[in-house]
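Q: what sequence does this backbone want?
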């Protein structure tokens, strides 16, 4: 059934049952865009809410665009009264809700930053990471330290040498101490730790450095 025939059947149903369109005693009424969907035409007709859901789904197939509110249509299909063409309506709902959802995502991520990444995606990613970080580090020990952080540190440094020192920490320190960095202001060369102390003592911003080996 196309949405034109369906609308005419609704109008006929109202007349045969002495239902005045818009009468709140008969149920919830919607102003349905007909014969053209919203954005293509301004003419509307009053339809009962459940009739509007069916009309919107059928109109979508004929007009080639989603013409219904996803939540309302899904609620009708899940909890509304059973209609003869229910299975056809469900198939059309899934088709056009999927297309509408994909277009909404594409539109939402159309704005890009200088790196070509979705601005919304980057923002959502940071918010999600912040929420996860908050949840992960919510539990604290008696010293106020994150239990997640403490346990992660214990796992990383669980292997000890004969002196009881963390093998990982010792190796990392050796690797760091082998690096040579140069102060770009004075030319002083040393490992990262010593160079940091030197620059701080001289009042030099520690960003003024370059790695040379």
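A:
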């Amino acid at each position: 059934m196309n949405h034109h025939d369906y609308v005419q059947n609704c109008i006929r149903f109202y007349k045969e049952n002495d239902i005045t369109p818009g009468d709140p005693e008969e149920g919830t009424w919607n102003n349905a865009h007909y014969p053209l969907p919203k954005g293509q035409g301004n003419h509307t007709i009053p339809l009962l809410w459940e009739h509007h859901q069916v009309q919107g789904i059928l109109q979508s197939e004929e007009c080639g665009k989603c013409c219904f509110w996803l939540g309302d249509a899904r609620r009708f299909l899940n909890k509304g009264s059973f209609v003869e063409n229910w299975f056809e309506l469900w198939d059309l709902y899934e088709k056009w809700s999927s297309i509408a959802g994909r277009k909404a995502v594409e539109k939402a991520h159309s704005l890009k930053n200088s790196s070509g990444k979705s601005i919304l995606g980057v923002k959502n990613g940071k918010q999600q990471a912040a929420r996860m970080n908050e949840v992960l580090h919510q539990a604290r020990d008696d010293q106020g330290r994150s239990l997640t952080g403490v346990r992660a540190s214990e796992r990383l440094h669980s292997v000890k040498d004969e002196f009881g020192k963390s093998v990982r920490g010792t190796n990392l320190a050796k690797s760091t101490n082998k690096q040579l960095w140069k102060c770009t202001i004075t030319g002083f060369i040393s490992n990262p730790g010593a160079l940091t102390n030197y620059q701080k003592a001289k009042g030099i911003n520690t960003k003024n450095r370059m790695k040379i080996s």
